[in-house]
Amino acid sequence: MPIVGRLPGCSNGYIAVGHGAVGIQLSPVTGLAIAELITSGECTSCDLACFDLIRFAKTVRQTAQSWWECGTLVLTKMVAVNRSRRAKGRF
């Protein structure tokens, strides 16, 4: 399902992506929806609630948290390995 609407935290940012194989067929209504958002601040031709980026907010936060934790763990191990190599004169 596509993501169409305003970008959260951005007063003049809009997004219209993820249409997949039906992009050509959905382009007229997507273009109209984005044009209405830009010109009047709201979309009156269709309800964009189910296409909002916010629907991924919980998943994105969880993914970002797990990537952060994973990245921190990897970095910590890399630093430990480098310190060990330096201490043994291998680096």
How far the N terminus sits from the C terminus, by CA atoms, comes to: 50 Å
Strand order of the largest sheet: 1-2
* Cα gyration radius (Å): 22 Å
Low-confidence parts lasting 5 or more residues at pLDDT below 50? Answer: none
Structural features, described:
- It is a single chain.
- With 91 residues, this protein is mainly alpha-helical.
- It folds into 2 domains: 1-51, no CATH class; 56-91.
- It is built from 2 helices and 2 strands; from the N terminus they run ββαα.
- It has helices at 23-40, 57-87; strands at residues 3-6, 14-17.
- The chain has a two-stranded antiparallel ribbon with strand order 1-2.
- Strand 1 and strand 2 (14-17) form a beta hairpin.
- The longest helix is centred in the C-terminal third of the chain and has 31 residues, at 57-87.
- It is elongated and about 70 Å long.
- The mean pLDDT is 79.
SSE layout:
Elements: E1 3-6, E2 14-17, H1 23-40, H2 57-87
Antiparallel strand pairs: 1-2
Summarize the structure.
The protein has helices at residues 23-40, 57-87, and strands spanning 3-6, 14-17. The chain has 91 residues and is mainly α. The protein is elongated.
Question: What are its keywords?
Answer:
single chain, 91 residues, mainly alpha, 2 domains, two-stranded antiparallel ribbon, 2 helices, 2 strands, 9% strand, elongated
